[in-house]
Amino acid sequence: MRFVSYPPQGHGPAGHQPYGPPPPGYPPYGYGRPSTALAYVTAILFVVCGALALTLAIVGWDGTSDSPTMLLGLVGAAFTDDLTGNVDFAISATMTAACTTITFALVLLARLEFVRWILAVVGALVTAYYVYAVIWVLSHDGGEYIAMVAVSLLLWLVATVLAVLPATGRAMRRKQSHGPPPSMGPPGYPPRY
Q1: Distance, CA of 185 to CA of 189 (rounded, Å)
Q2: How far apart are CA 29 and CA 21, in angstroms?
Q3: Which residue in 26, 22, 24 sits closest to 12, CA to CA?
Q4: What does the pLDDT read at residue 31?
Q5: How wide is the angle at C-alpha 110 spanned by C-alphas 108 and 116, nearest 5°?
Q6: Whole-prediction pTM
Q7: Does residue 96 belong to any structural domain of this protein?
Q8: Among candidates 121, 125, 102, which has minimal Cα distance to 46?
Q9: Containing H/E element for 118?
């Protein structure tokens, strides 16, 4: 006869989840409360994106900047010849995107779920523009001026991807109580109906 010794129900090996269901009146076993760090990292990254865009708009304020790299980093700079012929449109679009992003990113620090989606939409629009801008600059033989466009594209893309991750959504949630369900009585007593 062979004896197999299993650990008793509710006690697993050290460092692992317990075996069997949780005792009555307790929530199911889980991984614990998610960290809020990803929500704050996303907000800070959007603040950085907005600050960079605002810096680009201030540097290119009158359109006479000595750095074509900085001017090409403006949101809408690829459309200036088609729309107005000057960089006023790009400066306005950049300042609008920057101020909107900074405002909502600071509100995101309060971990409001709807703000995450607003920033995701703004980030997706700006990221889509920068993808177009990279193609436009390279197709007009401006490879030596693409640095700021590429940096902006990378920052906006990472911030937008972080905003739409499910883990960021879990990090946005407020603390929830983990007590027994309201219909359960104290342990050892039958449930209340």
Answers
A1: 6
A2: 8
A3: 22
A4: 59
A5: 30
A6: 0.72
A7: yes
A8: 102
A9: helix 113-139
Judge whether 115 and 39 are in contact, CB under 8 Å. no
Decide if 13 is inside a domain. no
**Euclidean distance between CA atoms 164 and 160, whole angstroms:** 7
Q: How many residues does the structure list for the chain? A: 193
Ramachandran sector of residue 4 (left: φ over 0; alpha: ψ -120 to 50; beta: rest): beta
Backbone angles phi, psi at 117, to 5 degrees: -75, -35
Neighbours of 125 (CB within 10 A): 14
Strands (E), the chain: none
Q: How confident is the model at residue 119 (pLDDT cuts 50, 70, 90)?
A: very high
Instruction: Specify if 191 maps to a domain.
Output: no
- CA 12 to chain centroid, in Å, comes to 37
The count of structural domains within the chain is 1
Assigned domain for 52 exists: yes
Q: Which domain holds residue 161?
A: 37-172
CB atoms within 10 A of CB 188: 8
